[in-house]
Amino acid sequence: SSELTQDPAVSVALGQTVRITCQGDRLRHYYANWYQQKPTQAPILVIYAKNNRPSGIPDRFSGSSSGSTASLTITGAQAEDEADYYCQSRDSTGNDVVFGGGTRLTVL
Amino acid sequence: DVLLEQSGAEMKKPGESLKISCMGSGYDFTDHWIAWVRQMPGKGLEYLGIVYPGDSDTKYSPSFQGQFTLSADKSISTAYLQWSVLKASDTAIYYCARRAYFNDNLGIEYYYDYWGQGTPVTVSS
């Protein structure tokens, strides 16, 4: 089992706001990064170091963190946001990389 | 533009060997570590390890230590993942990804900013 826990599936109505969460004790000490993966495609980075967006990522994507929970928020979800989302941080040793189990986002 | 180009799909039999590649372009290949990530059919992302093309230094995830070998050839901007004895359980898509870092007053954090397109590997008798 992953040291980072995500809900397996979340749904949101088109144009509404959705929060995808990632829980893990290491998140008290390290930032979370977030990746989006659409079917048959490679992952792409959408948020790094808690709340930084790479160039080209729409500003409807934002990140936050509180205690042992990191969140990815999509404000005004679009149909093209339907994908799997993975959080990533460090493991309990702080030296290795760990991914959450992923959350499948459905836009209704 | 930064690009990581991976080698094509492979179909192998159990017990065979395999080496897949990841060629970087659009940046100095020796400036960034290259990570490898596995995605088994219908499953999530798993971190395998990382290689530094500058001197071929490697760090393996303890969960996968000994199961494969990472290497790099900086002269051709290419990183490799190789198996000497494949198993059916190695069937997966393998991604390479470039490691970047973010530095603030809390320290350095690493993230993976560019990914290859993935190499599907099928191991079946």
Model description:
The complex is a heterodimer of chains A (108) and B (125). Chain A has strands at residues 5-6, 9-12, 18-23, 33-37, 44-47, 61-66, 69-74, 83-90, 97-99, 103-107. The N and C termini of chain A lie far apart (30 Å). With 108 residues, chain A is an all-beta fold. Chain A has no helices and ten strands. Chain A is 0% helix and 45% strand. In chain A, the strands form two sheets. In chain A, strands 2, 4, 5, 8, 9 and 10 form a six-stranded mixed beta sheet that branches. In chain A, strands 1-3-7-6 form a four-stranded antiparallel beta sheet, with no helix packed on it. Chain B is mainly β. In chain B, the strands form two sheets. In chain B, strands 2, 4, 5, 6, 9, 10 and 11 form a seven-stranded mixed beta sheet that branches. In chain B, strands 1-3-8-7 form a four-stranded antiparallel beta sheet, with no helix packed on it. Chain B starts with a strand and ends with a strand. The interface between A and B is medium-sized, with 24 and 24 residues.
Notable characteristics:
heterodimer; A: 108 residues; mainly beta; 6-stranded mixed beta sheet; 10 strands; 45% strand; B: 125 residues; 7-stranded mixed beta sheet; 4-stranded antiparallel beta sheet; 0% helix; globular
User: Which structural class best describes the helix and strand composition of chain B?
Assistant: mainly beta
- How many helices of chain A? The count is 0
What value does the average pLDDT of chain A take? 94
Which pair of protein chains has the largest interface, and what are the residue counts?
A: A-B, 24 and 24 residues
- What is the N-to-C order of secondary-structure elements of chain A (H for helix, E for strand)? EEEEEEEEEE
Mean pLDDT of chain B: 95
Ranges of chain A where pLDDT stays below 50 over 5 or more residues in a row are none
Structural class assignment of chain A: mainly beta
Measured distance between first and last alpha carbons of chain B: 40 Å
The main pleated sheet of chain B reads as: 7 strands, mixed
Indicate the overall shape of chain A.
globular
Chain oligomer state: heterodimer
Number of strands of chain B: 11
Strand content of chain B: over 45%
Element pattern of chain B in H and E: EEEEEEEEEEE
Number of E-type strands of chain A:
10
